[in-house]
């Protein structure tokens, strides 16, 4: 029988935060620990085998020209780093959504973290995959393939760094004391927001560099940034509310 890891459900006074109070006990199955160990393995491989690539990727967040250079070089080590770090990002999103839902009064899908984490991880991967496909299609239709490919690269670049940065925080949330859990959750959400704002800013840089009109920039934001995010949040809410025990 699967051994359970139990943490006490914390009492949080600020009602506007969205956390529910009470003396509930939130039980995480050992599968959560296994997923965290899997993430730790990916994290270690990325850090020790592709540490230099990650450092360059972080520098690219602050240097658009360096990003362009990395994008044009197409190095094999960058491709391998991208694959592993994108897998880590999807896994971290799945873990985070699954373990945080109970703190907002919901629960894992079908009452099982073993199912919930992979489903949300695949959902996160699918969201960005479909988004990249739409970008490629629009690039072909409007003859701006260079713009679409550049933005897709920057989008995944931001995701890669985000996954690496938030993984340590997500990994300790199930084992933190009830006093520290809210701070860890809000820190992760804050990093996600920063990553999202970076993508918007980088999209503006790309469009501005390629002399695309401001109207197109606004249309891209509405169709390819805001709408997918709202759909993902709404889907998570619907799933968590309808598929619980």
Please, could you describe this protein's structure?
The protein is mainly alpha-helical and 245 residues long. The protein has one domain. The protein contains eight helices and two strands; from the N terminus they run E-E-H-H-H-H-H-H-H-H. The protein is globular and about 50 Å long.
Q: Distance between the terminal alpha carbons, to the nearest Å?
A: 19 Å
Q: How many helical elements?
A: 8
Low-confidence stretches: 1-25
The major sheet is characterized as: 2 strands, antiparallel
Please indicate the percent range of residues in DSSP E strands (runs of 2 or more): under 5%
What is the tally of beta strands?
Answer: 2
**Widest beta sheet: strand line-up:** 1-2
List keywords for this structure.
disordered N terminus, mainly alpha, 245 residues, 2 strands
Secondary-structure map with pairings?
Elements: E1 4-8, E2 25-29, H1 30-49, H2 51-60, H3 64-73, H4 76-100, H5 113-141, H6 145-172, H7 181-209, H8 214-242
Antiparallel strand pairs: 1-2
Helix pairs in contact: 1-4, 2-3, 4-5, 4-6, 5-6, 5-8, 6-7, 7-8
Give a quick rundown of the structure:
The protein has helices spanning 30-49, 51-60, 64-73, 76-100, 113-141, 145-172, 181-209, 214-242; strands at 4-8, 25-29.
């Amino acid at each position: 029988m699967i051994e359970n890891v139990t943490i006490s459900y914390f009492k949080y006074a600020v009602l506007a935060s969205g956390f529910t109070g009470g003396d509930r006990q939130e039980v995480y199955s050992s599968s959560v620990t296994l997923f965290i160990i899997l993430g730790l393995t990916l994290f270690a491989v990325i850090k020790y085998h592709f540490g230099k690539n990650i450092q360059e990727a972080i520098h690219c967040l602050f240097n658009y020209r360096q990003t362009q250079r990395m994008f044009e070089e197409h190095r094999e080590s960058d491709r391998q780093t991208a694959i592993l770090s994108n897998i880590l990002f999807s896994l971290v999103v799945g873990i985070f959504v699954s373990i945080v839902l109970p703190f907002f009064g919901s629960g894992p899908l079908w009452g099982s973290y073993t199912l919930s984490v992979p489903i949300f991880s695949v959902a996160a991967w699918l969201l960005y995959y479909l988004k990249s496909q739409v970008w490629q299609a629009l690039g072909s239709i409007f003859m701006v393939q260079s713009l679409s490919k550049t933005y897709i690269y920057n989008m995944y670049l931001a995701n890669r760094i985000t996954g690496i940065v938030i993984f340590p925080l997500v990994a300790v949330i199930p084992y933190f004391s009830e006093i520290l859990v809210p701070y860890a959750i809000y820190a992760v959400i804050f990093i996600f927001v920063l990553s999202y704002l970076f993508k918007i800013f980088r999209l503006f840089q790309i469009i501005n560099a390629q002399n695309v009109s401001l109207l197109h920039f606004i249309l891209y934001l509405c169709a390819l940034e805001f709408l997918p995010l709202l759909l993902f949040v709404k889907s998570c809410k619907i799933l968590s509310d309808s598929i619980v025990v």
